[in-house]
Amino acid sequence: MRQSGVRLCTVSVAALFAATSGLSYPQDKVPATQPGAGVEDRITREVRHELVMLPYYGVFDNLAYRVDGRVVILLGQVTRPTLKTDAGKVVFKIEGVDKVDNQIKVLPLSPLDDRTRVAVYRAIYGYPGLDRYAMQAVPPIHIIVENGKVTLEGVVSTQADKDTAGIRANGVQGVFSVVNNLRAEK
């Protein structure tokens, strides 16, 4: 979604694939008449690439960002403080980026949340039909757990996959609530 020169993007392998295959999401469409659109588009593409390439970015992390001119605002949740730091560093090195506002939240350490993450992962990625998503370098369904509350982020192929993932996550023992923010491509 594009409003007043600011873009909100989430980082996922599916979105990266769509961008490189000629498909685009609404937030990637910029009118050619907008001043500075070329620089902002390039920064957007490079930020997405750099974040996806972070070595410790995984299924239990959610990275999002907004580009406003030459300012990049990093958002999301991560399980490791070093991932937050690394994300800020790689984005700041991108040519044309003047400022990085790193608002990524580091999730609290919790053995209970760690067990919940693994249980939800198994419930979703071990389910026939959803198991095909597990075969990617960074699986597109991100599982964010904070104090027993689960949020699903990312992109799936169909509405049925989105609904199934939500049902599977909700069925895990110890999960207090599930927010299903998955987006269906079709």
Please characterize this protein's 3D structure.
- There is one protein chain.
- By secondary structure, the protein is α/β, with parallel strands linked by helices.
- It folds into 2 domains: 2-106, no CATH class; 111-184, Histidine-containing Protein, Chain: A (2-Layer Sandwich).
- It is built from 5 helices and 10 strands; from the N terminus they run E-E-H-H-E-E-H-E-E-H-E-E-H-E-E.
- The chain has helices at 13-20, 37-52, 81-92, 111-125, 159-170, and strands spanning 2-3, 6-10, 62-68, 71-78, 99-102, 105-106, 141-146, 149-156, 177-180, 183-184.
- Strands 1, 2, 3, 4, 5 and 6 form a 6-stranded mixed sheet that branches. Strands 7, 8, 9 and 10 form a 4-stranded mixed sheet that branches.
- The longest helix is centred in the N-terminal third of the chain and has 16 residues, at 37-52.
- The model is unreliable at 1-7 and 13-33 (pLDDT under 50).
Radius of gyration: 17 Å
Order of helices and strands: EEHHEEHEEHEEHEE
Poorly predicted regions are 1-7, 13-33
Indicate the multimeric state.
single chain
Task: Describe the structure concisely.
The protein has 186 residues and is α/β, with parallel strands linked by helices. Helices cover 34% and strands 26% of the residues. The strands form two sheets. Strands 1, 2, 3, 4, 5 and 6 form a six-stranded mixed sheet that branches. Strands 7, 8, 9 and 10 form a four-stranded mixed sheet that branches.
